[in-house]
Automatic annotation (TrEMBL):
Lineage: Archaea, Methanobacteriati, Methanobacteriota, Stenosarchaea group, Halobacteria
Domain ABC transporter span(s) in chain numbering: 20-247
Name of the molecule in the record: ABC transporter ATP-binding protein
UniProt cross-references to InterPro entries, sorted A to Z: AAA+_ATPase (IPR003593), ABC_transporter-like_ATP-bd (IPR003439), ABC_transporter-like_CS (IPR017871), ABC_transporter_ATP-bind (IPR050166), P-loop_NTPase (IPR027417)
Molecular function, one GO term: ATP binding
Keywords: ATP-binding, Nucleotide-binding, Transport
Pfam family, one: ABC_tran
Length: 267
């Protein structure tokens, strides 16, 4: 069964359209060059992770893709659109390290609210289903303060999905969670990504997380951020926690770690 799903996924990969494309993207702030000459393509439906040292420009990369930051040089396309047009069309779901839920609203109301703000008709039943999908059935009426950190991030993911976004831009969304919850969330996010056919660009500081989640893992060098290496991650699809114990996983983690250190030494 697992083998069948693997070959089905592999078969579609080569036919996919490009969801995100960066060509020669440089981003300067006043006295800082945050990104330097970044070329990157992400296929429709692909899960790409980005890892690199603190301050190397990962958040800047996500913001540039998401139309929140203009590049100083180079071009960014999201499908056929500019990032700004894609953002206005609601193509992006942002999930950040801090969930940014409204504390006075219930989980369900938080999921619905962002869609309302985006001018789309909210659908409470669909929002309820999404909370079920991310494992929060029964917590619809709980306020953020009554939920654990992992549960709040689940609400934030459901909220991004409810927006109808095709591209999820995730910036260290599990950064504040303990290791076990993180691993569990990783399994969930891959499941949601598969079931709903999203494209994901996911920033993390954790090497195991970057490898576990990825179809491809992008390693960035120290500031200014350049792409130091890109790895195709050949691990079973679908993936569950048992992957963490395999030799193939450990070897891939070691390769990414080496590339990270080499990225440091470039400077
Ligand atoms: N709005 C801004 N104005 C000025 N400088 C900025 C701005 N945003 C980011 N920078 C600078 O650009 C560089 C890259 O920042 P960025 O937040 O993209 O790094 P990062 O890789 O996400 O770091 P971290 O892993 O710590 O989150 C840093 O030197 C940062 O100080
Ligand atoms: Mg960051």
């Amino acid at each position: 069964m697992v083998g069948d799903e693997t070959s089905a996924e592999e078969a579609t990969r080569t036919d996919r359209a490009t969801a995100i494309r960066l060509d020669g993207v440089t981003v300067n702030f006043e006295d800082v060059r945050a990104l330097e000459n970044v070329d990157l393509r992400v296929d429709d439906g692909e899960f790409v992770t980005v890892i690199g040292p603190s301050g190397c420009g990962k958040t800047t990369l996500l913001r540039t893709v998401g139309g929140l930051q203009d590049p100083t040089a180079g071009t960014v396309r999201v499908g056929r659109d500019s990032p700004d047009a894609a953002r206005r069309d609601g193509e992006f779901g942002f999930v950040f390290q801090r969930h940014a839920l409204l504390p006075w609203k219930s989980a369900l109301a938080n999921v619905v609210f962002l869609r309302e703000m985006a001018g789309k008709s909210p659908d409470r039943e669909a929002a309820r289903d999404l909370l079920g999908t991310v494992g929060l059935a029964g917590f619809e009426e709980s306020r953020p303060a009554e939920l654990s950190g992992g549960m709040r991030q689940r609400v934030a993911i459901a909220r991004a999905l409810h927006l109808g976004a095709s591209v999820l831009l995730m910036d260290e969304p599990f950064g504040e969670l303990d290791e076990l919850t993180r691993e569990e969330m990783g399994v969930e996010v891959r499941r949601v990504w598969r079931d709903r056919n999203k494209t994901v660009l996911f920033v993390t500081h954790s090497v195991p997380e970057a490898v576990f989640l990825a179809d491809r893992c992008v390693v960035m060098s120290d500031q200014p951020g350049e792409i130091a290496a890109v790895f195709d991650v050949e691990l079973p699809r679908p993936r569950d926690e048992s992957v963490y114990g395999t030799t193939a996983f450990q070897e891939q983690v070691a390769r990414v770690r080496t590339a990270l250190h080499e990225g440091y030494e470039l400077r």
